[in-house]
Amino acid sequence: MESNVWGLPCSLSSTQAPSISSTKLLRDANKHHTPFRTPPTFNPTSFTHQFIHSLPNNLSRETLQERAAELEEKVRLMMNGTDMKPLSLLELIDDIERLGLFFRFQDWINKALLRLVSIENFKHRTTKSLHETALVFRILRRHGFHVSQDIFMSFKDEEGKFKAEISNDVEGMLSLYEASYLTLEGESLWEANEFSRTHLMSLMEERSMDAKMAEKVRHVLEGLPYHKSCCRLVAQHYINTYDKAEPHNLLLLELAKVEFNMEQSSYQNELKELSRWWWDIGLSGKLKFGRDRLVEIFIWAVAIYPEPQYAICRKVMSKIGILITFLDDIYDIYGTLDELELFTNVFESWNVNFINTLPDYMVLCFLAIYNTVNGLAYDIFKERGINCLPYLTKSWSDLCKAYLQEAKWFHNKIIPPFDKFIENAWISSTAGFILTHTYFLITEDITEQVIHSLTNNDHDLLRSVYTIFRLSNDLGTSKDEIERGETSNSIVSYMHETGLTEENARQYFKTLMEKEWKNLNKYLIMDSIFPKSFVQVVINLVRSGHFIYQHGDGFGRQNTITKNIIMSVLMYPFQLMCHDDVEK
Ligand code: 0FV
Ligand code: MN
Ligand code: MN
Ligand code: MN
Ligand code: MN
Questions:
Q1: What Pfam families does the record tag this protein with (predicted)?
Q2: Residue 34 has pLDDT above 80, yes or no
């Protein structure tokens, strides 16, 4: 059982020792409240507590760890013992990353790339294939190396357009397409995106590639480009389709399966612990109107922080994520404006003495948050000697104020202009809120400058993140929100202001998101006030938004794509080979 700074149990379960909330808990949480309209009923979660606790988890961690160490050693021996051509090396690095093994070979990859840039001449390349050129460009930029878009010069004509003759090279086109997502602002390379996509589509229509390649191309064009994908979540697909036959590739594949199974087993344990916590809090049983989405929030957390060392972030993010989902539903759907004003004041004061002004359902929600956040700040203080409570409470209070502003617009039937809407929506997107919590959890050298940027939303990198995170949410959820009568939405504001159709507004937002991505890419290469490890999480957060909302609302509505990923990542382990079969 966790405790908070007051030494009280974080759980609100009535079987625990009396806490601040105990007298309130004796009453029916919904009793004194008449909603201003009938709240919609969200589908119940597809993943119940019974489901979570029935996950088998009978893999022995120790055995898997030993096997992984053994395989890693062998892969390293083989890789070091082979004199690889640049193309084979680049393909191997790409495979390692796509198989979800980057963190195991980080040191090896960095050394290999440093060696590569020291021997290769990237300015005057005329002999390399388009595939190799695009691959080296994408991998180097992703790893923070400066490499100019001029690397593609030999594939362009005198007018600077890509030559028509390269358009039949399927592999080259596919690699060029993936590389185009690493474009920086102002670079003409973005033209490669439209160029390669169009040609890949015609090549598919003409059936001028074999079935396997066609499937690969279809998968890429229909889904997210690799640069925007949560790579560890898609590792399962890559493992399933990986079919290279070199001896080190077989070992690598087996290692990827062992790693996947090992992570699955950790995720299952984490989820079971979270499920007990959430069951003890008991909020979903009391507040029937909210979305109860523990497993969906957890997979979202896995998308942001997949690495083994970030278990604590997954746990914290899942807890605050499920709490803000209820909070958001209170502001968007259930609360009256008067109640919401009082609620926001209580968050601003962070003072339990004021909770008696609130209806019971709000008391319950506030206390659950209050106990959880105080407990978190306590743990961080205990472990790291940093008092982050003032910053965490400010981020909760700012989030509530932004939610309140949206509720005011809605209740007063105001559609704000897009600029005004988006400035508020940066905060209600929750991206800054999540990053503030994350910063205190993962950063060694905390600086005032970063805290200031995070709590004041005044950094160029952060603004790009908030914009993409908000727009991907609105593109995915606005249909249902508009149906429910919610008007706080970028699409509604933009259509109202410009007179454009919904389809055109959506198209415009997609272009805007691409522009913001070009700005994000700059931070892969350039130093900034943010540590590089934090920038990686920031970019993963953006990717997670694309993942959840790529085919509509994968969170609130739980579409089949999210469900399938949840099942594959959390439930089904890979069948492992016996040792002799891999190593002969
Ligand atoms: C957004 O829902 C949503 F998924 C929330 C609040 C869960 C928290 C997400 C993370 C922790 C990443 P919805 O689309 O209703 O949000 P808006 O802001 O549009 O009401
Ligand atoms: Mn909402
Ligand atoms: Mn909302
Ligand atoms: Mn939404
Ligand atoms: Mn909204």
A1: Terpene_synth, Terpene_synth_C
A2: no
* Residue 328 CB–ligand 1 contact under 6 Å: yes
What pLDDT does 29 receive? Answer: 44
pLDDT-above-90 percentage for the chain:
71
Report angle CA 433, 437, 441 to the nearest 5 degrees: 160
Give me the number of domains the chain comprises. Answer: 2
Q: How far apart are CA 312 and CA 289, in angstroms?
A: 29
C-alpha closest to that of 269 among 324, 315, 218, 212:
315
**209 & 319 share domain:** no
Mutate to test the pocket of ligand 1, among 318, 422, 473, 546 (most ligand atoms within 8 A of CB): 473
How far apart CA 426 and CA 349 sit, in angstroms, is 23
Cβ–Cβ under 8 Å, residues 187 and 150: no
Task: Assess contact for 555 and 472: CB atoms under 8 A.
Answer: no
- Among 305, 438, 477, name the best residue to mutate to test ligand 1's pocket (greatest count of ligand atoms within 8 A of Cβ): 477
Q: What is the pTM of this model?
A: 0.91
Show Cβ contacts of residue 439 under 8 Å, excluding neighbours closer than 6 positions: 446, 450, 451, 454, 534
Strand-pairing partners, residue 388, are: none
CA atoms within 13 A on the CB side of 457: 23
Decide if 451 is inside a domain.
yes
Bridge partner residues of 26 (DSSP): none
Counted residue by residue, the chain has a size of: 584
Q: Residue 93: give its domain's CATH number.
A: 1.50.10.130
Compute the chain's Rg from CA coordinates: 25
Range of the domain at 158: 62-253
Mean pLDDT of 22-36: 44
Indicate which ligand has the atom closest to the C-alpha of 426.
1
Is the distance from the beta carbon of residue 196 to the nearest atom of ligand 1 less than 6 Å?
A: no
In whole angstroms, what is the distance from residue 124 CA to residue 133 CA? 11
- What SS3 state is found at 327? helix
Non-local CB neighbours of 337 within 8 Å, separated by 6+ positions: 407, 408, 411
Cβ–Cβ < 8 Å for 134, 175? yes
Residue carrying structure tokens 């205990």: 382
What ligand is nearest to the CA atom of residue 331? 3
Does 100 lie in the same domain as 143? yes
Q: How far apart are CA 42 and CA 62, in angstroms?
A: 41
81 and 166 assigned to the same domain: yes
Q: Does 244 share its domain with 292?
A: no
Looking at the structure, do residues 291 and 248 belong to the same domain, yes or no? no
Beta bridge pairs of residue 168: none
Specify which residues 263 forms β-bridges with. none
Whether 383 contacts 461, CB under 8 Å:
no
C-beta 549 within 6 A of ligand 1: no
| Rounded to 5°, angle at Cα 386 from 385 and 389 | 130
Which secondary-structure segment (H or E) carries 413? none
Residues 6+ apart with CB under 8 A from 221: 197, 200, 201, 204
At residue 113, the pLDDT reads 95
Domain-embedded: residue 27: no
Q: Which of 275, 242, 246 lies closest to 260, judged by CA?
A: 242
Mean pLDDT, rounded, for 552-563: 82
Distance in Å, CA 38 to ligand 4 centroid: 19
